[in-house]
Amino acid sequence: xxxxxxxxxxxxxxxxxxxxxxxxxxxxxxxxxxxxxxxxxxxxxxxxxxxxxxxxxxxxxxxxxxxxxxxxxxxxxxxxxxxxxxxxxxxxxxxxxxxxxxxxxxxxxxxxxxxxxxxxxxxxxxxxxxxxxxxxxxxxxxxxxxxxxxxxxxxxxxxxxxxxxxxxxxxxxxxxxxxxxxxxxxxxxxxxxxxxxxxxxxxxxxxxxxxxxxxxxxxxxxxxxxxx
Amino acid sequence: xxxxxxxxxxxxxxxxxxxxxxxxxxxxxxxxxxxxxxxxxxxxxxxxxxxxxxxxxxxxxxxxxxxxxxxxxxxxxxxxxxxxxxxxxxxxxxxxxxxxxxxxxxxxxxxxxxxxxxxxxxxxxxxxxxxxxxxxxxxxxxxxxxxxxxxxxxxxxxxxxxxxxxxxxxxxxxxxxxxxxxxxxxxxxxxxxxxxxxxxxxxxxxxxxxxxxxxxxxxxxxxxxxxxxxxxxxxxxxxxxxxxxxxxxxxxxxxxxxxxxxxxxxxxxxxxxxxxxxxxxxxxxxxxxxxxxxxxxxxxxxxxxxxxxxxxxxxxxxxxxxxxxxxxxxxxxxxxxxxxxxxxx
Lengths: 228, 345
Ligand SMILES: Nc1ncnc2c1ncn2[C@@H]1O[C@H](COP(=O)(O)OP(=O)(O)OP(=O)(O)O)[C@@H](O)[C@H]1O
Ligand SMILES: [Mg+2]
What we know:
- The complex is a heterodimer.
- By secondary structure, chain A is α/β, with parallel strands linked by helices.
- Helices cover 34% and strands 26% of the residues of chain A.
- In chain A, a hairpin with a 2-residue loop joins β8 (208-213) and β9 (216-220).
- The two termini of chain A are 19 Å apart.
- By secondary structure, chain B is mainly α.
- Chain B has helices at residues 5-33, 44-51, 59-94, 106-120, 131-151, 158-182, 185-195, 204-223, 225-241, 246-268, 273-286, 290-314, 323-344.
- The complex binds adenosine-5'-triphosphate and magnesium ion.
- The site of magnesium ion has 4 residues of chain A, from α1.
């Protein structure tokens, strides 16, 4: 793809990731607005570690992560372990994302109004309207995944990292969630990195696919669902 | 959240009441404290009458009230509030209950600055009255800056800040000891005197300036409450999943609390205990929600410091016990009592 003058949103430069020993080395990746990249690979290979490094939770062993986000809450992260407040309601949890994604500078009234609006939209998109006042601990695994997704959508991030956010969902729900999230990315010009264990789904969702294998990040090319 | 909302509301109400009552008590106590002093020209009752506008004051009396007692009391309130607030923020963003505003090398930086000014005459500002203050302030900020730079270089964990803080504290301490070794007796006593925290040093103008700075920073402290909640509820991974960048947040909160601390201790010398104890007392009373914890710590810190200082200057009057010493003497046992009581419950 030729991106000409467009500014990148995310640039990984010769990145080496891991906790003490490197898991994956020499990762280079540049992403532009509207792009979706999938990461696939075996369990324990370092997919979550890659997302956590991009998010700044783990320091890179070598190289650097360059994020071009300026606004508050510009980085959205749907973690594999969801990190929800279990005793609090769905709307409270989603509100945390909306809070981070809005700024007082927008003016106090718009601030509160916009927040509530964002929360309602995200809850509706994720099909959680009936559950909005339920404490999260009473929700099923799939419903909790959708709460975490709604929270990040309400944040309106410029870069979205999602770690297996479709697992535990049934086919119908997957379609609903995928549509909202991908629509959001395309419309707002965000960039999304998606960790996905289902290769077919990765092909369906993303512009580019990378596989983590033997300590490297390798781009995969598919044609009609088959590996070339 | 909703099924427990009624109980929650009730609890919120009690907590807000506690906060307002504490503010009230502190203000009344501040007025009472204006009446204490060793001057023969102004006893307690006369002071109260003057303050309440029942009696006219002589020039000397108003001088004592407004130029001696008032700055000291305001300094206790503002300094105590600032240190306690800084302590609460540091504990929250480093996720460590043992952290106080002086842990991160702010104090050793200030001591180093003061020692350089006193012993070597090495000062960054050429106004003589402000030389030590400016040195203490700037060096404590320099030290914090170094700690934050080093702490975020290799690893992003909060432990690295604490460890590097400890290392730098030792280094700065060694330099101060070396300077003491070469200092004259007069310089040594000046340095020792500096390191006992005292509220009598800053004059009215100083105190008013400090108050302006602290009040200006207070809203930023409150604004950081949500981010601190996110950081303290579930650590870095939870924070980022709610859109709060833990690394950036931690840095900016560290800078803010270091700034609050340096502004105060540059003028008063080392006052440490209130920054550790007041946030903990507040936690016991009002819980761990930083939106309440920060203002509550500020109020408790103000009260505690004023109480300690008032006791320190009346107990053995005319001998004045420095507030830093007093705080540890009365605050320590009280703090222990609260902690042990909580365990029992
Ligand atoms: N906090 C940690 N400290 C040290 N090692 C870790 C830590 N977290 C994960 N690891 C190790 O790093 C390796 C990669 O883990 P990671 O979670 O990135 O795998 P993954 O590709 O996401 O796997 P899965 O598909 O099962 O989620 C594993 O061997 C794991 O044991
Ligand atoms: Mg994983």
